User: Which sequence fits this backbone?
């Protein structure tokens, strides 16, 4: 195994980790610390671009499973190694993370922090999260994956528990326990899932020790090679260990209730990473671990997952319609979207797989943008409740437009990025699973309902709502809010339209929404070969062969 | 490319489609121009307020000129060479699925291009005047340009996914424009309703695409149409019904018609362009475009005709009851599209007739809406016809152009509606047996109702007492106070009357020009096939013509007797008879939606939120507490959390190490 080592992925893990330490060291000067953190994130973005172009699509199409491989022994006694490598699926997820982190930093630039917290701590935690995320996607050793999977909880726990809940104007004292509750709930759920997965990780090792000539191993490639020889009954138990952990993380209904709490309490920046990337580790795990390592179990348990997925699509969409808290609303829309991703993964076709992977990327972009836009509303009004707002498009038209674009992407309007992925998931799932696909397709009506309903209540109609009224003038004013905010003698109000920083944060996301909506080709080209490999590992042929041209 | 025998076979079956050449290679500019206009106007913001409307008009006029060039080029070519394709790039490539971002230029799509950009140009120009006082005029032109771009993609796409892109794209433009007056809650609600009901139809369209992909392995028109005959009748019928569901959503056909009248919340030019002349006819386009599919399913066609018949009656009945000038015209549109649906449902006997009526209707209904807009412009934006009266003296140009549209719509001999609507009625009546009787009879009856409601509208608006003299319109000003204004009806500026005059000329001549020598039918034949005329019905051709004329004349007379001979009350009379009450309530369509969907849905949502917060969450929390031994311990875990966390990690690691050692010793010994 002394082929030339590629250190790129190791560098991608270490740069944000070391950067995070450096940012903490600068905590005496928050301004410098923030700039340093942003600098690190931008360096990471450049390095990720280098990684992107170092990855060879033709090699992947030729059958090379992982590229940019780095491999050193770790604990020789147990056969654990530090093995890093990426396929197209992991690569696009790392790229998504690299794109989102600087945007998240920009969006958090003016955030109010809870009493006693420094910006340095917040930005250091963001970088630490990024480091663990790169690790979790780049690991090709199951034990190493588990370590990163658990490690990524730690910075996120602190982001929610120490920095959450500061966006609401009302009394701080009553909020602190709530964010503690949300953080602990997030942690307990994830930890429980992780421990169950640990059982399966150990089980895999035990099974491999029986079957492989070299003894037990955690190496993904070796475990995959032996997958076909493991009896289905054993596969099912091992599958379930991974599945439960991922179903909590994704989350799938009914294990989803931690997410609305965590999403509501998390600072916007952390929420974007949580919903946009962290939760995608689970669907990534389905594709990387559940399907290739336990192909027989995946196929026989697919109906169970499909039911959960489809129930999630409808159930979470209806719950999203019923939310008054905008951050909980975004969280529930995500639960519905995860249903689509899970449907695509367990429908076993090239189109559905590619759609699911692209969905992970697109969901990170669109929901990230939706979260950020919601955050910008909350930053102006000091309330998370939809009912505290109304008619904002009259005073903040650009923010209304940004919100609407992210909403339209969320409901998968053609021309936006999400359409391509949702369409691929559905058209790819239909041939094998028509009934589930039909139910999921009906879900697009509910998606339109929840997006437009929130948009109508917050942005359309006459100006209204407590948060808007309170911002206009003191009590006792008889002036109408419309006149006060739009009239010639415009009152001083917190409801101003996007400032340049906010435009800079949203612009790249808007560009990505439309760019990937019309030109998804370059990303799909990276994803497709790895999806073909996954199909082969599952051992299924595509249900639709297509016309010969 | 053609590597295997099967590939050769499929290629041989597919219609020979030549790549676009000459000006055809620039066909992408058709939609790119207005899309560019929309992007610039959206992004430039207030900076473009001064010139935005001019750019908006220029892009659409430019597209119209290019459309004319393409049309002339196709006309110069032989019928077989009129269909060309232009593949721009591969949009969605995954495995065997290969969605082309490609255009299909053929007689059908070029006809629509001319309608969309031609009427579109006129309405853009009209809007310069109509929206001149509106601070949001730039936004209006941006959204109108967006609509034109999406509509052109809809008709130009060479595969079903491109169609879907345009389909939902026009839905978005429609949503934005219905909700253009954002501060009005009713506009916002109407916009949302339109989008949602359209999405119901879109689900049908999407499922049809999935079904075609599953069974044929392609979404390309040429390949689908070439191999549709291989499918079992059941699957083809399912595709037909699902496509029709999409068509019903977009075209306001029964049972998805209720959004279209509410869409009149949008500015009147929008009603003219989107909700009368172009977008709402997309459903008719869809059925006509998919004629190879409907050709092989007689049951599928029958369902289309039934939807058409129900809708044309329903629209005509409700149209008789409204006092809101735009709503009457909206229900008239619903009804007229019902005629088109009926026509395309007749299959080879009617595809071209449906498109024919679509074109003439595009002229006269757009003209009628612009006329209504002109009336509103001079009448403080009032839409209640009971406040109008005697306006012909004050707005002569509006009156004469509107009158021509009126005569065209009711099928006055030799005006355009006479040719196109009568052709449909004749073709429907010529169907064998009970079908001809029911379809022809319903279409003739609705023609009579059309004459009635339009005569009522004409008389209430332009004739009779000047009721507005004693009335005031109320307006809510920016500072929230209510203000009353007297009416000063006046003719609109030339920038508005110009387009109205052009459309009025179309109302006169389009029918004759298009039908002479079967010009339109022959032009469309390469796409829609030869028109197969039948004469097997119980009602003969001449009887159908005579019946239609008689019923229409009767409608005019009844209209005069009911409205023209006595003063119109300013308040609408109550109580009224049951049928009128039902018609005023849209034949209870909204009540049914409300009772069956909205109210149970709201209730379900509330219940689920409660269940999710208390039930699901409580259950999981409870389990967690149980596992932790007691809720007290859970609380301790929360307070001293970091320590507990370290302990759990440590515990996990110890467990892991122990297990590994055990395995290692186990395998060694």
Assistant:
């Amino acid at each position: 195994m002394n082929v030339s080592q590629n250190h790129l992925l190791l560098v991608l893990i270490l740069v944000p980790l070391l950067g995070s330490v450096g940012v903490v060291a600068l905590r005496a000067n928050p301004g410098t610390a923030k700039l340093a953190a942003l600098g690190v994130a931008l360096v990471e973005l450049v390095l990720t671009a280098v990684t992107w172009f170092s990855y060879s699509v033709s090699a992947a199409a030729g059958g090379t499973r992982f590229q940019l491989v780095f491999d050193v022994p770790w604990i020789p006694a147990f056969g654990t190694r530090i093995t890093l490598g990426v396929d197209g699926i992991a690569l696009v997820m790392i790229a998504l993370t690299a794109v989102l982190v600087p945007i998240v930093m920009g969006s958090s630039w003016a955030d109010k922090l809870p009493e006693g917290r420094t910006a340095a701590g917040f930005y250091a935690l963001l970088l630490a999260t990024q480091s663990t995320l790169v690790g979790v996607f780049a690991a090709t050793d199951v034990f190493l994956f588990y370590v990163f999977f658990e490690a990524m909880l730690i910075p996120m726990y602190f982001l929610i528990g120490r920095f959450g809940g500061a966006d609401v104007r009302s009394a701080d004292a009553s909020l602190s326990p709530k964010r503690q509750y949300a953080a602990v709930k997030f942690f307990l759920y994830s930890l429980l899932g992780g421990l169950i997965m640990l059982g399966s990780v150990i089980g895999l090792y035990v099974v491999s020790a029986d079957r492989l000539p070299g003894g037990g191993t955690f190496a993904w490639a070796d475990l995959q090679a032996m997958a076909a020889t493991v009896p289905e009954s054993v596969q099912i138990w091992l599958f379930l260990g991974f599945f439960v952990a991922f179903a909590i993380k994704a989350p799938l209904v009914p294990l989803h209730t931690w997410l609305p709490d965590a999403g509501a309490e998390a600072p916007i920046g952390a929420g974007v990473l949580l919903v946009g990337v962290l939760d995608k580790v689970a669907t990534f795990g389905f594709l990387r671990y559940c399907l290739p390592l336990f192909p027989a179990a995946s196929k026989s348990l697919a109906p169970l997952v499909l039911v959960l997925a489809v129930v999630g699509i409808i159930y979470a969409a209806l719950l999203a319609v019923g939310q008054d808290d905008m951050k909980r609303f975004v969280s529930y829309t995500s639960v519905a979207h995860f249903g689509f991703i899970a449907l695509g993964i367990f429908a076993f076709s090239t189109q559905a797989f590619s759609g699911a992977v692209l969905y992970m990327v697109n969901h990170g972009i669109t929901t990230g943008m939706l979260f950020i836009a919601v955050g910008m509303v909350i930053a102006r009004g000091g309330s998370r409740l939809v009912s505290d707002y109304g008619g904002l498009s009259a005073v903040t038209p650009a923010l209304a437009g940004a919100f609407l674009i992210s909403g339209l992407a969320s409901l998968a309007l053609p021309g936006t990025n999400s359409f391509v992925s949702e369409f691929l998931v559905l058209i790819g799932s239909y041939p094998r699973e028509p009934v589930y696909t039909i139910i999921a397709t009906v879900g697009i009506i509910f998606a339109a309902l929840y997006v437009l309903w929130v948009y109508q209540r917050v942005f359309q109609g006459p100006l209204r709502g407590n948060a808007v009224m309170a911002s206009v003038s003191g009590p006792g004013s008889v002036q109408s809010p419309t006149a006060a905010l739009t009239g010639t003698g415009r009152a001083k109000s917190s409801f101003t339209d996007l400032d340049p920083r906010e435009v800079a944060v949203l612009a790249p996301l808007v560009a990505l929404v439309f760019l990937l909506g019309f030109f998804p080709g370059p990303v799909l080209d990276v994803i497709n070969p790895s999806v073909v490999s996954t199909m082969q590992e599952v051992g299924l042929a595509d249900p639709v062969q297509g016309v010969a041209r | 490319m053609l590597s295997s025998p099967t590939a050769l076979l499929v290629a041989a079956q597919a219609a020979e489609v030549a790549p676009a050449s000459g000006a055809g290679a620039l066909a992408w500019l058709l939609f790119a121009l207005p899309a560019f206009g929309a992007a610039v106007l959206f992004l430039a913001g207030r900076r473009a307020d001064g010139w935005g409307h001019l750019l908006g008009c220029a892009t659409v006029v430019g597209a119209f000129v290019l459309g004319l060039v393409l049309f002339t080029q196709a006309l110069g070519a032989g019928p077989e060479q009129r269909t060309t394709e232009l593949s721009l790039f591969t949009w969605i490539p995954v495995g065997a699925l290969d969605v082309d971002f490609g255009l299909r230029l053929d007689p059908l799509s070029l006809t629509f291009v001319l309608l969309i950009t031609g009427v579109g140009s006129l309405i853009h120009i009209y809007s310069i005047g109509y929206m001149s006082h509106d601070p949001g005029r730039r936004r209006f032109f941006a959204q109108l340009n967006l609509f034109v771009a999406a509509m052109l993609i809809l008709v130009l796409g060479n595969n079903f996914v491109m169609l879907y892109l345009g389909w939902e794209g026009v839905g978005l433009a429609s949503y934005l424009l219905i909700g253009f007056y954002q501060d009005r809650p009713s506009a916002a609600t109407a916009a949302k309703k339109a989008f949602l009901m359209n999405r119901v139809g879109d689900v049908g369209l999407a499922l049809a695409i999935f079904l075609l992909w599953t069974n044929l392995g392609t979404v390309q028109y040429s390949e689908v149409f070439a191999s549709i005959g291989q499918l079992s009748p059941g699957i083809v019928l399912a595709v037909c019904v699902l496509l029709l569901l999409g068509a019903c959503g977009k075209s306001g056909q029964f049972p998805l018609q209720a959004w279209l009248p509410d869409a009149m919340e949008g500015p009147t030019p929008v009603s003219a362009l989107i909700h009368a002349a172009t977008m709402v006819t997309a459903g008719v386009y869809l059925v006509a475009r998919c004629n190879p599919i409907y050709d092989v399913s007689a049951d599928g066609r029958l369902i289309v005709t039934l939807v058409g018949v129900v809708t044309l009656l329903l629209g005509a009945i409700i149209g008789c009851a409204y006092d809101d000038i735009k709503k009457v015209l909206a229900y008239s549109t619903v009804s007229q599209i019902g005629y088109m649906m009926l026509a395309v449902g007749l299959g080879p006997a009617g595809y071209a007739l449906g498109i024919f009526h679509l074109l003439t209707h595009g002229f006269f209904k757009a003209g009628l809406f612009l006329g209504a807009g002109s009336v509103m412009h001079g009448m403080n934006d009032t839409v209640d016809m009971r406040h109008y009266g005697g306006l012909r003296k004050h707005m002569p140009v509006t009156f004469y152009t509107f009158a021509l549209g009126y005569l065209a719509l009711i099928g006055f001999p030799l005006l355009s509606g006479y040719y196109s609507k009568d052709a449909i009625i004749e073709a429907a009546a010529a169907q064998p047996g009970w079908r001809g009787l029911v379809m022809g009879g319903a279409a003739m009856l609705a023609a009579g109702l059309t004459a009635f409601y339009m005569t009522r509208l004409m008389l209430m608006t332009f004739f009779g007492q000047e009721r507005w003299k004693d009335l005031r319109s109320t307006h809510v000003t920016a500072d929230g106070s209510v203000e009353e204004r007297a009416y000063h009806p006046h003719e609109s500026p030339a920038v508005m009357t110009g387009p109205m005059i052009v459309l009025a000329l179309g109302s006169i001549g389009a029918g004759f020009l298009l039908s002479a020598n079967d010009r339109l039918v022959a032009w469309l034949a390469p796409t829609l096939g030869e028109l197969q005329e039948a004469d097997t019905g119980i009602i003969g051709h001449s009887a159908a013509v005579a019946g239609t004329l008689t019923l229409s004349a009767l409608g005019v007379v009844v209209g005069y007797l009911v409205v023209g001979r006595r003063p119109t009350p300013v308040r609408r009379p109550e109580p009224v008879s049951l049928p009128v009450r039902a018609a005023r309530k849209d034949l209870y369509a909204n009540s049914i939606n409300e009772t069956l969907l909205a109210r149970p849905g709201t209730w379900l949502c509330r219940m689920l939120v409660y269940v999710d917060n208390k039930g699901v969450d409580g259950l999981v929390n409870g389990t967690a507490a149980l596992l932790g031994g007691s809720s007290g311990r859970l609380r301790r875990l929360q307070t001293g959390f970091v320590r507990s966390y370290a302990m759990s990690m440590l515990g996990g690691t110890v467990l892991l190490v122990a297990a590994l050692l055990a395995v290692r010793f186990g395998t060694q010994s």
In short: The first strand of chain B starts at residue 18 and ends at 19.
